[in-house]
Write a structure and sequence with these properties.
Number of helices: 7
Strand order of the largest sheet: 5-4-3-6-7-8-9
CATH topology: Rossmann fold
Order of helices and strands: HHHEEHEHEHEEHEEE
Shape: globular
Structural class: alpha/beta
Number of strands: 9
Bound molecules: S-adenosyl-L-homocysteine
Helix content: 25-40%
Distance between the termini: 21 Å
Oligomer: single chain
CATH architecture: 3-Layer(aba) Sandwich
Largest sheet: 7 strands, mixed
Length: about 260
Amino acid sequence: MRHAFAVAAGLAALVGYAPGAGGGAERPAGPGAEPAPVATVAPAPADRAAERARMVDEQIAARGVADPAVLAAMRRVPRHEFVPAPRRAEAYGDHPLPIGAGQTISQPYIVALMTELAAAGPRARVLEIGTGSGYQAAVLAALGADVYTIEIVPSLAASAAATFARLGYRSIHARQGDGYHGWPEAAPFAAIVVTAAPPSPPPALIEQLAPGGRLVVPIGVADQELQVYEKGADGGVRVRRVTPVRFVPMTGGDR
Ligand code: SAH
């Protein structure tokens, strides 16, 4: 199975971060371990804010995501609410997780990086292709953006819509369909974030960028690269290559 997982090994080495070290899951006490004193371990707060703060420090800020608004959004959005119940304990781990239908919720660092590259401030209109669990859309909404998101798999589109309603995300407009053609009725967008990999940038998405807008997209089949297409005020498009990544393939597009 392929995951929406950043191949961030080089980057991780650069910051000296060992994925998994000290991360979240508690080990059972071995024979010789001190018995845990009763009543000193408070139950984890239901919203798990401390785990999120640690995720931001160790996985995201440590790898160079610096935009304070993005870091605040990553601290605020309850990622565990977007993870299927059986995997919720792992919600703040440094990796993607399965969400059903062979798809994944992306690694937290990749969500933060794509959000920073999208640079979508309050009231910006943003399109996401590949709603999946709905987590990336919720992070964009937490920045104050007006979010449009499209998911091709009906069961995932339905469960993400239910999650948005349950958590009260009113600025997210979600629909089921093929995002290859974008959402022309809601265009133009200040930013478009694509969380499944097409072999090349879908022309409709470039078309639906506002002047000054940015398309953040993993491009490629076997080897993928995160790229940013920026539309200038004159309509010209510049591309920036960011980092190697690994995402599920974009389907649909009549291809
Ligand atoms: N952004 C998601 C990650 C989703 S993984 C999250 O935060 O959880 C990528 C998703 O893209 C999958 O759910 C997959 O079904 C969807 N997808 C693939 N091709 C698509 C297309 N052409 N249009 C819309 N969604 C697509």
